[in-house]
Design a protein that fits this description.
Number of helices: 5
Number of strands: 11
Helix content: 25-40%
Largest sheet: 5 strands, antiparallel
Radius of gyration: 21 Å
Length: 252
């Protein structure tokens, strides 16, 4: 059986063709279902509303922030590629909640994303602390993250690039293709991920974004968009970048 020491993947991105980018750690924000479970609930609405508020209060990004304009992801001063990007150290809560009520049992569900693992690991603890100081604390049972929308896993995998490998890979490509290799600092906040994340749990790996747009021709390589188009020069760029990387990593 093949026992790889490291592995790589790339996904198309909407930056101008010829650029390749990545970063250590999370590339996409982690996204998790949060379930607040209660029992012996006599007045459901008296619990549902403050439970939703407890989840919503986790959000760290103001409603008026430029964070919400996805065009700013590529902004040169606040976007993903700037050390002072606004797309780091954040928690975002979706504006939707699910409620399951049967008898005196109640579950209030929200959907939370965070830009790094440390912030995500604190979510449940923060919720328990909020509920402990609330009038419905006596009926609180637990907070869990079981994802009812996933059929193959109770937890969603999230891209988590191996730090040392990613830094070495970016440096290797930059030596050959200076100016085309971008180190990212921000974390993409739209809840995307890739099955590559599950392999990363077992083998060191780095996931790259390979740009494929030509704005001068109206070609925008926005993944999953109805008007997706790609500058096919990206095929040549990709072969060049990653063959050079493999040569460097193999010491050939």
């Amino acid at each position: 059986a093949v026992q790889p020491d490291e592995f790589y993947a790339a996904h198309i991105s909407p930056k101008p063709a010829g650029l390749v980018a990545s970063k250590a750690g999370y590339l996409y924000a982690d996204y998790r279902q949060v379930n607040l479970v209660f029992n012996n609930v006599i007045k459901p609405e008296a619990t549902i509303t403050p439970a939703k508020q407890s989840i919503a209060s986790l959000q760290s990004v103001a409603k008026e922030s430029p964070f919400w304009n996805t065009a700013n992801l590529m902004d040169p001063t606040i976007g993903l590629g700037h050390p002072n990007t606004i797309y780091q150290n954040y928690v975002v809560v979706e504006n939707r909640f699910d409620v399951e009520h049967a008898g005196d049992a109640l579950t209030v569900t929200g959907y939370v994303s965070a830009s790094n693992g440390e912030l995500m690991q604190l979510i449940n603890k923060r919720l328990r602390q909020k509920i402990a100081n609330n009038e419905f604390a006596a009926s609180f049972v637990e907070v869990n993250n079981q994802a009812t929308q996933l059929t193959y896993s109770l937890q969603r995998g999230n891209i988590n690039n191996t730090a040392q490998l990613t830094e070495q890979s970016l440096q290797s490509m930059a030596k050959v293709y200076d100016g085309r290799v971008l180190k990212l600092y921000g974390v993409i906040p739209d809840g995307r991920s890739d099955d590559f994340a599950y392999f990363q749990q077992h083998i060191p790996g780095t996931y790259f974004l390979l740009s494929g747009s030509d704005f001068s021709k109206g070609v925008v390589a926005m993944p999953h968009a109805p008007n997706f188009a790609v500058d096919e020069r990206v095929i040549e760029y990709g072969v060049n970048y990653f063959s050079s990387l493999l040569v460097e990593r193999l010491g050939l």
